[in-house]
Amino acid sequence: MIARIIASLARLLTGARAHWHGCLPEAKLRVYFANHTSNLDLVLLWASLPPELRRITRPVGAQDYWSSGIRAFLSLRVFRAVLIERKQVTKSNNPLRPMLAALEGGESLIIFPEGTRNPNGEVNEFRPGLFHLAKARPDVEFVPVFIDNLNRVLPKGEILPVPILCSVRFGTPLTLATDETKPQFLTRAREAMLALRPQ
Amino acid sequence: MNLDRETQYLFGGTLGILTVASVIGWVLKARITSEGGRKVVDNLVSRTNAWWVMAAVFGGALAIGKLAPVFLFAFTSFLALREFITLTPTRRGDHRSLFWAFFVILPLQYWTLASDWYGLFSILIPVYAFLFIPVRNAIAGDTEHFLERTAKIQWGLMIAVYSVSHAPALVTLLEIPGYTGNAKLLFFLVFVAQISDVLQYVWGKLCGRHPIAPKLSPNKTIEGFVGGSLSAIAAGTALWWATPFTPLQAAGMSAVIVLMGFFGGLVMSAIKRDRGVKDYGETIPGHGGVLDRIDSLCFAAPVFFHCVRYWFTA
Predict the structure, then answer these.
(1) Which is the most buried residue in A147, A186, B272, B279, by most CB within 10 A?
(2) A159 neighbors A57 (Cβ within 8 angstroms)
């Protein structure tokens, strides 16, 4: 219920349309990886999936950001986020573990491989997590996603959003090629995402 | 819901026109085989289908009465302003001003309509919003392209909110001696403006040769403009019985709407060309964005409103 209201609000504000360029919205085991410019990225990408996919797709978020107050409620109850540690990573709280567990349970993931928001709309280098996921689960489809204009809806540091039209573009799924190295895969993934950027 | 006889005729007539358009679409679809022709016909069919939806929403709002058109046009303004601002490169420093524009100024403008306050309706945006936006931007502190950025927000508010709000103002703010059912006046404005667009398109497709503004809209031709305008004025004149006008006055009013509508289309195209896009959005299948559909109305509504107010109200 709350999930549906939030999804409708996000779409009303941004008029967002999902453009499925390289694949269709199918219930396959997937990792959607998107650019990160605004706190609303997670909400909008999640809202632009059809409801039946939303039920089996979980966003990955930072433990330190999503664990208090209203955010905790939203992340746990509404988005069913997979929370990972990004500050003090040790062997016992290895961020890969909860993500792999979710995939193991048949649930797709939404991740932001830049690791942090980039308010000017550019795309930073990817963190290595994406590669480790791909290596552990070569059977999973890695779908590049580009979210356009959302940094104008809610820039970093603002609380109140303004309505600006956005688009969410889904590209052709990638999988790790045999003997592909970490930098090669991360570069290829980043280029696949950038190729979706509207001119 | 209590429709007078004239309104019933207007609705019936619209239903008839749309039915004819749909039938023509089906016939053409069955006949045309060439690749290029099929594209045109497909676009025609999706435009017609969108017209059915728009006519149903607009007709429904007119039938429900007074406040429904206000809400409908308020929402239209919201969509149009969103398209306009999306196309305009704004900066971080505009964020708060934009929030005010969308969530305070826009609702306030339509609230003046709901509360019958002509004084504030006519100056809220040209005076208060005009002065407020640069002040808010100045407080935000970003001086780069200051005048440009401020002017763009002011322009968006004037076109997408202030101008558009003059259409429902026909219903709530005008009292014309000896005439009731102002919703018909709003119908007249919207019908003439839109049928003029449609007829100019049809005439242009049928016998358009000489482009009228090749740089702005390569599809607009002199033949389309002349043929479309004259037949739209004829259509408007034929509706005089639903308005407070004599047939001659109805022709004059139609001419005002058609001409302003044409200018509106031209100006809004110029903005699109400058930004390098074809349409303002993709909200309405076959038509583009909301602003693409109401560009003529943006220019026709305020002038028509003031013509009626000056000559026909007490």
Answers:
(1) A147
(2) no
Q: What are the residue ranges spanned by the domains of chain B?
A: 1-64, 92-172, 174-314
**Cβ A149–B86 below 8 Å, yes or no?**
yes
**Does some domain include residue A9?**
yes
What is the extent of the structural domain holding A156? Answer: 2-60+86-194
Residue A165 to residue B281, Cβ atoms within 8 A = yes
Residue A76 lies in a domain: no
- The answer to whether residue A199 sits within a structural domain is no
**What is d(CA B204, CA B226) in angstroms, rounded to the nearest whole number?**
9
Interface of A with B in 164-183 (CB under 8 A): 164-165
Instruction: Indicate the residue of B79, B95, B283 with minimum beta-carbon distance to A155.
Output: B95
Whether A9 contacts chain B with CB within 8 A = no
What CATH number is given to the structural domain containing A42?
Answer: 3.40.1130.10
pLDDT per position as a tens digit, A66-101: 888 888 888 888 888 998 887 777 777 788 889 999
Calculate how close chain B gets to A155, using CA atoms only, in Å: 7
Distance (Å, whole) CA B69 – CA B210: 39
- Please state, in angstroms and rounded to a whole number, the distance separating the CA atoms of residues B151 and B143: 13
pLDDT tens per residue across span A139-153: 999 999 999 988 899
